[in-house]
User: Which sequence fits this backbone?
């Protein structure tokens, strides 16, 4: 997708028209997400959003999906690693806490002010942050730069070393 999503969305109008938007958002636009990324200025997120008025829910709903790749720091080797961001969103637009309590269980309540406008990044940013692992690591140790270090240390352990052959507890044998 090369088309950019609009920066600001008029939810009531889009819902009334049952609009469907497809486009990309640069990861650099997600200010809170940037704290978790190793290279926050790189990458795009492909997004599709479908707007509707849902009488079973409170009112306007937004359903969609997103996918893209981000650069995180591996907590094992401290090198850059690719991480796939992908998921679905199902949001019900609410203006009060009372409305939020009546939202269908299939939707997450999303606060909307009186203007009905919201920035497109705000719809997705929380979901992206929740996908980031607390301690990101390469899925395979062989991908980590530390794997080379571990194999180097393992090879060193196979070589005889006088200081390693001395057991500090040998002194205790002589005490009895």
Assistant:
């Amino acid at each position: 997708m090369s088309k950019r999503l609009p920066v600001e969305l008029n939810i009531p109008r889009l819902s009334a028209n049952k609009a469907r938007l497809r486009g990309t958002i640069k990861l650099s636009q997600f200010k809170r997400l940037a704290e978790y990324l190793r290279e926050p200025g790189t990458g795009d997120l492909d997004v599709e959003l479908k707007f509707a008025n849902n009488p079973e829910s409170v009112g306007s709903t937004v359903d969609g999906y997103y996918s893209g790749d981000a650069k995180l720091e591996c907590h094992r080797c401290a090198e850059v690693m690719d991480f796939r961001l992908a998921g679905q969103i199902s949001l019900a637009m609410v203006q009060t806490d009372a409305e939020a309590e009546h939202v269908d269980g299939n939707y997450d309540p999303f606060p909307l002010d009186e203007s009905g406008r919201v920035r497109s990044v705000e719809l997705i940013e929380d979901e992206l942050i929740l996908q980031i692992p607390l301690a990101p690591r390469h899925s395979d140790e062989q991908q980590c730069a530390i794997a080379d270090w571990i194999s180097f240390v393992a090879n060193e352990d196979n070589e005889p070393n006088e200081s390693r052959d001395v057991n500090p507890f040998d002194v205790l044998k002589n005490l009895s």
The longest strand covers residues 80-94. The radius of gyration is 26 Å. Helices lie at 11-16, 97-101, 120-131, 146-158, 162-165, 170-173. Strands lie at 8-10, 20-26, 44-53, 60-73, 80-94, 108-111, 117-119.
